[in-house]
Specification:
heterodimer; A: 308 residues; alpha/beta; Rossmann fold; five-stranded parallel sheet; four-stranded parallel sheet; 14% strand; B: 189 residues; three-stranded antiparallel sheet; 26% helix
Chain lengths: 308, 189
């Protein structure tokens, strides 16, 4: 039975995750063609409902929808309706009347995409809600890791940064756990939850974390616009303690470790400039895979209006 | 009507006939065999193997046409999408599309659409192991191994060793329900 919405990783069954990860590769093959577009969603409409600014996720979804031949409309909430005092509910009723087939939602409030999903026939994809979930990021991260490690079970991923406020950390940790990947968190004590899930290790010291011998180092973005800046003394200090400095980059290179980051990178904070040329950096792979996985997600969902 | 069966020998003879007809028609000129998933790829691979001994420039590719179907919403229940693999330049190529069964012609329509997204071939031909009739599109094969007389609602079920672990074709008759208009989705049998 096809699923209507994609809201969290936890709501997916293992079989569905495997299927989405398997389907991303055929979509990635489309990018190599002379015409980088397939007619699978021809005549369907995709509405982008972004209550929070996001250039990357927004354009990734937009490119994915267009490569499936869907029509994309941007519902620019931040500029119009909110300032006029329109509630989310009223907005959704408007969208329902527009008979859109798919709605991509980003909102600062956890759980809001689920509320929208319950009120509309359209398929809803959560493109990030508060500190709650970012399922397509998790899927693209898992796909990127599986490209390097086709049998990811038992591999180790070290996630570094502001775990506490990160929906990426939450969703990506969840999916990696389901694939049997071992996950550890590293960051300032104030930004790493004191009680991680039982299968997740917690570090606050870079050296100790590297002694665990991870296969992949995953750096989270320091969210300057959110409250994280108050949780450590200075950006320079953060870089020195938890960033990939030039010295640490040489160490990663010697160990042959893969490096990931959801973007956009704060240079000189999470990563030094030299990382941009690191041969085992998967950051650009993540961008390309993000489009493929979002195509697979849109292709797999089934709006209620189309259900038999 | 009784169920009929084609054997492994019938299939093998069919593949040889396709290879011989293609050899005779193309006379050593470069050709690209493109099999349509699933099972068309296996037929194409067998034809390729028969031609491999000749002094002819042969390329081989595989096409998955799931994303190009016009009955996408029926298939959505189980979108078993797989990777296409066209490891050569389509522009200017002489392509021979290969499928196991030609039925309505809708699969071939979709395959032509998919192919044109890779480039502009000089020529496209169609080779099928079985033509069972009942076309819904103006599509005719250039090479046919086996002509099967079937009724519209019969099932032609092909099993090949590499895909299904056995080798046979079953033609299963199906009685239409009395006084009901039957619209069967165009199956890619």
């Amino acid at each position: 039975m096809p699923r209507k919405d994609l809201l969290t990783i936890a709501s997916l069954e293992r079989g569905e995750i495997d299927q989405l990860l398997d389907q991303a590769a055929p979509f990635k093959e489309v990018f190599k063609r002379s015409v980088k577009k397939v007619p699978a969603l021809k005549g369907k409409s995709v509405l982008m409902l972004f209550y929070e600014p996001s250039t990357r996720t927004h354009s990734s979804f937009e490119v994915a929808a267009k490569r499936l031949s869907a029509d994309v409309t941007n519902f620019d909430v931040s500029q119009s309706s909110i300032t006029k005092g329109e509630s989310v509910r009223e907005t959704v009723e408007t969208l329902q009347a527009m008979r859109t087939d798919y709605i991509i939602v980003r909102h600062g409030r956890s759980g809001l995409p689920g509320l929208i999903a319950a009120q509309t026939h359209a398929s809803v994809v959560n493109a990030g809600d508060g500190a709650h979930a970012h399922p397509t990021q998790a899927l693209l991260d898992a796909f990127t890791i599986k490209e390097k490690f086709p049998e990811p079970c038992g591999k180790k991923v070290l996630v570094i940064g502001d775990i506490l406020h990160s929906r990426v950390a939450r969703s990506t940790t969840a999916i990696l756990g389901m694939l049997g990947v071992r996950v550890a968190w590293l960051g300032p004590g104030s930004l790493v939850p004191k009680n991680p899930p039982p299968e997740v290790l917690r570090f606050t010291n870079y050296g100790e974390a590297m002694a665990w011998e991870p296969d992949v180092v995953y750096l989270l973005r320091v969210q300057m616009e959110r409250q994280s800046a108050q949780f450590f003394p200075s950006l320079r200090e953060y870089h020195r303690l938890y960033g990939i400095t030039e010295t640490r980059l040489e160490d990663l290179r010697a160990r042959g470790l893969y490096l990931m980051h959801p973007g956009p990178v704060n240079r000189g904070v999470e990563l030094c400039d030299a990382v941009m040329n690191y041969e085992h950096s998967l950051i650009n792979d993540q961008v390309e895979n993000g489009i493929a996985i979002r195509m697979a997600v849109l292709y797999s969902l089934r709006p209620k209006s189309q259900m038999g | 009507m009784q169920e009929r069966i084609l054997t492994a020998d019938d299939i093998a003879r069919g593949v040889t006939k396709l290879a011989n007809d293609i050899r005779a028609a193309t006379r050593g000129k470069p050709i690209c065999l493109v099999g349509i998933r699933s099972r068309g790829d296996e037929v194409a691979e067998r034809v390729l193997n028969e031609l491999a001994g000749d002094d002819q420039d042969l390329s081989f590719g595989v096409l998955d046409i799931s994303l190009y179907r016009d009955d996408y919403e029926h298939l959505h229940e189980n979108p078993a999408l797989q990777e296409s693999d066209i490891p050569f330049t389509i522009n200017g190529a002489h392509v021979i599309l290969v499928d196991d069964v030609l039925f309505t012609g809708r699969t071939i329509r979709a395959a032509l659409d998919a192919l044109s997204d890779y480039g502009r071939p000089a020529k496209v031909e169609l080779a099928v192991l079985i033509d069972r009739g009942h076309r819904e599109m103006p599509v005719q094969p250039d090479y046919t191994a086996i002509l099967l007389d079937t009724r519209r609602l019969d099932h032609v079920h092909v099993s090949l060793e590499g895909t299904d672990g056995k080798e046979e074709v079953r033609i299963i008759p199906k009685e239409p329900l009395p006084s009901v208009e039957t619209h069967e989705p165009a199956a890619g049998e």
